[in-house]
Amino acid sequence: MMNASDPIPFLKGILEGEHRAIARAISQVENDTAAGCAIMRSIYPHLGRARVLGVTGAPGAGKSTLVSELIGEFGRRGRSVAVVAVDPSSPFSGGAILGDRIRMERHALAKRVFIRSLASRGHPGGLTRTVYRVVDVLDAAGFELIIVETVGAGQAEVDVADVADVRVVVCAPGLGDDVQALKAGILEIADILVVNKCDLPLADKTELDLRFMVSVRKDGSPAPRVLRVTATSGAGIPELADAIESDLRGDGRRRQQSLLVRMRRQVAHEAANTVRRRLGATSSEALDALCAALARGEVTYEDVVAAAIRLASNEVAPPS
Description:
The chain has 13 helices and seven strands. By secondary structure, it is an alpha/beta fold. The model is unreliable at about 90-95, about 120-125 and about 315-320 (pLDDT under 50).
């Protein structure tokens, strides 16, 4: 039996792709335990093999059904697939409401498939605070493709752009004026736009709306492809998988660069969380003095931010 305080059995099990070891390691990482920290230190030399696909979109767009079909399609192509499905938190237990896990249940027993639901725990951006670490565990476990599915995301919830190599944004027919709201946020992170539920009315109009929106990008970046899918019947899934594989294809150098980008974003993310946490533990008098000086016009916001970072660096959070 594995000892949660000893990372060595976890490491062996993770590297061998054992589902039980992976699941227990993720639990340790999610809960910020000492074993979780040791696990993370142990797996870093084994990272860089996986590619990460982000799937996001508005609530009700059919993301989970789409991901379930992609699991099957990539499985038929011989790929090992891990899924991190971020669900809303239960208002009672704080745990994940396992809607995504239920939709993907038919794949759950496949040896080359691993599915884990994570609770968002109120974290903004459509993801969860520990998603970077969970992706690293699955990367070390040898999965070739890691799919990160966000909770239903709005125009500002674009954190998936930081963790994924390729981003798929799923849209449902009948967006109408919602396209105007989406264009300033979530559409701009898309590498591939998917119109799902194309057996429904207004699918053609939604596709035309999206094609127009991406054709007027002002940043000069390549326009994302717009694909039609009906996930419930599997229509368009092979073509979508082809597009994803095309975008993910790359040599070892590109994979290593993707890993470095992911780690750089993770470091920035963790640093921001650390500053926020330490400032929360800082005496209110110190912060009040900084804000009072700002209110009097004696300093700028930049000055206060720099001072707050120094303050957070020097503060020691009280023991829990």
